[in-house]
């Protein structure tokens, strides 16, 4: 898709083969604006604004390779979302899935990985291929810090989200 330019942000979306997933990349319009200034504005409404400003076009895209991995302790997060009984040996009730009494969740972790290369994007166990065609077209160059969102096209659900702070360090 052609880039969407707002006063603060320049965004671009790359649909993947099969069009069920897409990679949305956003960076500050002004090279002097730090990525952190956009972080405070990263909301569903901002993403929708980037989305509606996109139009389909052929273009040259320069995106660095990057790989990210993170592990989260869900035991620290889930209670703040109202999921606490599962971790309490006295309150947990798993009789709907097991006949064994006294079961509770002692630990819960979530691990996420994403890798973007010339061959495509690998996110967890899923692989999507990127097809780029060189042409005399507009250029989108992610040569400074940027955000990315890997999204499911049909629902708009964000499957992975992250930021690349120093694209030059990501190159092989």
From TrEMBL:
SUPFAM superfamilies: Serpins. GO terms for cellular component: extracellular space. GO terms for molecular function: serine-type endopeptidase inhibitor activity. Residues 1-167 form the Serpin domain. Coiled coil: none annotated. Gene3D superfamilies: Alpha-1-antitrypsin, domain 1, Antithrombin, subunit I, domain 2, Serpins superfamily. Pfam families: Serpin (PF00079). PANTHER family: SERINE PROTEASE INHIBITOR, SERPIN, SERPIN E3. Belongs to the serpin family. This is Serpin domain-containing protein. It comes from Coregonus suidteri. The lineage of its organism: Eukaryota, Metazoa, Chordata, Craniata, Vertebrata.
């Amino acid at each position: 898709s052609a880039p969407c330019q707002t006063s603060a942000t320049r965004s671009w979306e790359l649909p993947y083969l099969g069009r069920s997933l897409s990679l949305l990349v956003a960076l500050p319009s002004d090279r002097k604006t730090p990525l952190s200034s956009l972080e405070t504005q990263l909301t569903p409404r901002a993403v929708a604004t980037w989305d509606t400003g996109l139009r389909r076009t052929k273009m040259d895209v320069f995106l660095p390779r990057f790989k990210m991995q993170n592990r989260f302790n869900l035991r620290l997060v889930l209670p703040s979302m109202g999921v606490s009984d599962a971790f309490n040996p006295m309150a947990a009730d798993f009789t709907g899935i097991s006949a064994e009494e006294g079961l509770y969740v002692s630990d819960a972790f979530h691990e996420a990985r994403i890798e973007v290369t010339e061959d495509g994007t690998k996110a967890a166990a899923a692989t999507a291929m990127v097809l780029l065609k060189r042409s005399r077209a507009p250029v989108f160059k992610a040569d400074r810090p940027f955000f990315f969102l890997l999204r499911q096209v049909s629902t708009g659900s964000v499957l992975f989200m992250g930021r690349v702070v120093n694209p030059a360090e990501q190159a092989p």
